[in-house]
Amino acid sequence: MTTDPSELYEQPIAAIATPPGAGGICVVRISGGNVFQCVNRLLGGDVQPIEFRSRNTFFHTTIHDCETGESLDDALVLIFHAPHSYTGENTVEIQGHGGVIQAQRLLNAILKAGARMAEPGEFTRRAFLNGNLDLTQAEAVCDLIQAQTERAAAAARVQLDGALGSEIHNLYDQIVGLSADLEHVLDFDEGEIADNFVHKTVPSMEQLKLSLEAMISTWREGELLRQGVLIVLSGAPNAGKSSLLNALLRRDRAIVHNLPGTTRDVIEESYSLSGIPARLVDTAGLRDSEDEVEHQGIQRAHALIEQADLNLLVVDQHDSEHEQFDSLLHFFNPDTLVLVLNKSDLPASRQPPLPCDVPIVAVSALTGEGLDELKAAMKAKLGITDNAQSHSVISQRHLEELRTAARAVEESLQLLTDDTAAIVIAAGYLREGSEALGRITGRVYSEDLLNHIFSKFCVGK
Ligand code: GDP
User: Fold this and answer.
1) Helices 150-160 and 135-146 meet at what angle, rounded to 10?
2) Cα separation of 436 and 434, whole Å?
3) What number does CATH give the domain 139-218+393-442?
4) Of the N and C termini of the chain, which has fewer Cβ atoms inside 10 Å?
5) Cβ atoms of residues 369 and 363 within 8 Å
């Protein structure tokens, strides 16, 4: 379904594009409709109107309130003529002084001059409707803005450059080509499918299915980059959890003390594990405690252990008191667990019986020995690889559509292999698959799909 973009925009839309707060400049963006007339109302009477200026230019001027004539700001006004703008429409960006109040005054003046407030993501939505971006690129804009690490930003950048879009377009063309082949056989061979046709088509379909599955397999990596991971450090008091947190962060964040019960609540820090954004949480030592505050801290530790994507259970390998070790192990799902035998710089005491189904790493939080091995074990447990920047990664939305497409190809393949007379149904499946791929890039879209995607954007993007 398509909407004629020209029908939508009479009134220009406006929003502050820079984040709120004190800053050197703020940028207000205004796009579409009669944007130039709107901005002319903000200029002094003796200033040359925008229409009479050269195309795609900028100038320095004073911005006035169009109703009161009050001088509001000295600003730089940048003019973009359609289609050479982000949205593909006539657009003006006004760079005024930064600051929450000043930016709001500027925006209010623009609204008084005839613009309306933009909806979240409306600029990018217009860029999509005007063909400047496909949907994967529009989504990458959001990912880039929200990226928490270099690696997440690099992956979003690759997607914004169109890497994912062109892979999907390529798959789309293949599936549409196959569907056309089937329909051709229907039209010209009156439904009689020739054996050699099946021999030719089936390998192409199998190849397409493999390509779809290869893309599906990158989902987890994309999910980790976008959502980040929760890593929880827990263990008995004095095992060295706070020391390990500090060692991983390479700075003194948590208080380290040889008095058990020093960390009585959780401490949370942002951490980057090979570019995957993580929340690293140090918890209260797990033990039976009469102290009410410590007890609450321990309860929160248990809740976090359940939510964690990765649990680091820290054990003092120098300590011979292992009675609690067995009971501690019961709290953990082995799928999320890495066992850390800390204080490897000290002589080991008699080892407690260690589980054989979880990775075990010896470290010294004090000297840093074993930390690289620990990070490798953490990455392996989370399925993180080191070479992600160069290719695009898919989101949950892409995953669902790719699965639909893969299922459609699979069904179609099955039908053609089992019963060559079922060619009509097989072609129908392929059409379904092509629509699913079309929804990823926006070749096929509905208002609901666009609302869903752009509601996640901030106003001004
Ligand atoms: P937590 O209660 O588990 O957070 O333990 P802390 O990090 O507060 O450490 C408890 C004590 O063990 C402190 O005196 C630390 O200096 C000491 N400690 C922690 N890690 C190591 C280590 O790797 N080697 C040695 N020798 N001492 C450590």
Assistant:
1) 160
2) 5
3) 1.20.120.430
4) N
5) yes
Asked whether residue 20 carries a pLDDT value surpassing 90, the answer given is no
State how far the Cα of 20 lies from the Cα of 432, in Å rounded to an integer.
44
Q: Is 148 exposed, middle or buried (0-12, 13-18, 19+ CB in 10 A)?
A: middle
Q: Ligand 1: residues whose CB is within 6 Å?
A: 235, 237-243, 256-258, 262-263, 285, 342-343, 345-346, 364-366
Give, using CA atoms, the residue closest to atom 19 of ligand 1: 240
How far apart are the CA of 241 and the centre of ligand 1, in A? 7
Helical axes 163-188 vs 195-216, angle rounded to 10°: 160
Sheet holding 25-31, edge to edge: 58-64, 71-80, 91-97, 25-31, 13-16, 116-117
Q: Strand 310-316 vs strand 337-342: parallel, antiparallel, or unpaired?
A: parallel
Identify whether the C-beta of residue 309 lies closer than 8 Å to the C-beta of residue 336.
Answer: yes
For the entire predicted model, the pTM comes to 0.76
Dist CA 394 CA 365 (whole Å): 36
Nearest CA to ligand 1 atom 25: 343
- Kindly give the distance from the C-alpha atom of residue 339 to the centroid of ligand 1, in angstroms, as a whole number: 16
pLDDT at 267: 83
Domain ranges of the chain: 13-134, 139-218+393-442, 228-382
Candidate from 238, 340, 371, 374 with most ligand 1 atoms within 8 A of CB, to mutate = 238
Position 349 scores a pLDDT of 81
pLDDT by residue (tens digit) across 415-431?
A: 888 776 778 888 899 99
Residue of 234, 253, 256, 369 to mutate, ligand 1, most atoms within 8 A of C-beta: 256
331 alpha carbon to ligand 1 midpoint, in Å? 22
pLDDT, position 1? 41
Length of the chain: 461
Atom of ligand 1 nearest to the CA of 237: 2
pLDDT value for 4: 46
Nearest CA owner, ligand 1 atom 24: 343
Nearest CA to ligand 1 atom 26: 343
We find that the CATH architecture of domain 13-134 is: 2-Layer Sandwich (3.30)
